[in-house]
């Protein structure tokens, strides 16, 4: 009899573990600073976000289909944190969301898509070039020009995934987009050293066959409008109930996962 009771207790405990529920609350904000003033090397193009299987946090019906429940604002607990960020001159909150989910592993827990801010799709192509400038058209096999791809270009776009794999984990794949400029090399002309204007780059040790002397390269640059994109890709182990902060030179993410 004791053996049977022990087995039943084990089964009940495993059932309780499998049915754990968590409330996830997330705030994403940007820092009010010029990216050029940050000592970072920003790539011109960022990797594409994998939206496969993602569920929009703004679509409560889609969330429910995946056993995810959008929480009403009276269930939020980070309102004070959001208010402090909004009142600080150095930060700008972009999104504040919360939902309830189970304790599935990474393979079964879908990524949640977050979008916020302005949509620049009417002004820029997906590669960041302005539509007014025509973009970087490419030639296809039939000889015609193909227009660059277009799509949603929100200030904040990307996914986060919270899952249980013995511990709680969060993965982020977010992009912050801001209009800016880029400097492009438009022409390079080789000239004699004696004719070179100030500011040109000397190529030492290179002899021109006709002059047998040093030559210089005169480089011409153009500055164009460009939609800059900054990646925020991180993975972090968490503890339930604690407030965690994921840092980035231009933005930040605050998250709390509470066991229900």
Main beta sheet: 6 strands, mixed
Strand pairing plus helix content: what structural class?
Answer: mainly beta
The average pLDDT is 84
Distance between the termini: 34 Å
Tell me the strand percentage band. Answer: over 45%
Overall shape:
elongated
SSE ordering = HEEHEHEEEEEEEEEE
Major sheet strand order = 2-5-8-9-11-10
Contiguous runs where pLDDT drops below 50 for at least 5 residues:
13-17, 199-208
Number of strands: 13
Q: In the residues, how many domains can be counted?
A: 1
Q: What Rg do the Cα atoms give?
A: 26 Å
Helix content: 10-25%
DSSP helical segment count:
3
Can you put this structure into words, describing what you see?
The chain is mainly beta and about 260 residues long. It has helices at about 1-20, 60-65, 80-85, and strands at about 20-30, 55, 70, 90-100, 110-120, 140, 145, 155-165, 165-190, 200-205, 215-240, 245, 250-260. The chain has one domain. It is built from three helices and 13 strands. It starts with a helix and ends with a strand. Mean pLDDT is about 85; it is low at about 15 and about 200-210.
Topology:
Blueprint lengths: L1 H17 L3 E10 L23 E2 L3 H6 L3 E2 L8 H8 L4 E11 L10 E8 L18 E2 L5 E2 L7 E12 L1 E26 L8 E7 L6 E25 L4 E5 L3 E9 L1
Parallel strand pairs: 2-5
Antiparallel strand pairs: 1-4, 1-13, 3-4, 5-8, 6-7, 8-9, 9-11, 10-11, 12-13
Fill in the keyword field for this structure.
260 residues, six-stranded mixed beta sheet, five-stranded antiparallel beta sheet, elongated, CsiV, signal
